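## retry 2 of 3
previous attempt timed out at serialization; input unchanged, resubmitting
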Amino acid sequence: MFGIFMESLVIFKLYTGLKFLFLLTLFSWIFLLVKEKDSRVRILLVYAPIIIVILFLFPMSRKTFVAIGLDGETYYRILWTIPMGVIAVYGICRLFEKYKKIGLVVGAALIVLCGSFVYQSGYISKAENLYHIPNTVIKICDRIRPDNPDARVSAVMPPELIHFVRQYDASINMPYGREMLVERWGYYNAVYEAMEKTEVVDMENLLEATRADYCQYIVMHQSKQTDKDPAECGLTLVDEIDGYRIYEDPVTAQTVEGWQKYYEDGE
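## retry succeeded, writing output
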């Protein structure tokens, strides 16, 4: 039981970071605990968060979480129910409301000192278009998108592109998605194994896997090494966009076209 408690405590520490923003939330929570008179606010922002934390750290809570069939790896998501941002902002606003000038100075100082300039984050970059995805993805998707709006196309994409493809065009199928990028999930996909698990791609293995999944297109970065020239293996280079080479597999394309013609004739 103690081991489960310590593991949950570590998860809590990682979640909060135990840094300035957590201290800002803690400061606001203490202020609301002492000064807030509205019982509804106290229930939501004072009592509920501390009850959630206690239950989260209580070993039997995690054992019950797993016992009812939920994934223990997602236990940390219980902490998402704690409105840390709301507690911090509401507490600072109440401080300002009660003490006016001093509340404004203290609140502003805490926010400035405890926060960071969000645009310095490596996860934020200037938008290239209205879709807020790389222009390269848009150009590749537009290049392989079928002319028939009711048709779908299947394509193998490099890991750095797969997050964005479905955001832009849901008519493009992929044999694998972001699940393959998280090793601890333990997913297996033959196409991903052949495409990404080796430094030099074995083209015969890759084509065997892609044709089994009926992938019409294979998108590779020009830096990707292959044991054979894709063109010698029967692939057709249809375009090169921003360093990504788009190959079409005539074998799979012919099979898919046959299906489409069959269904169109059937209608």
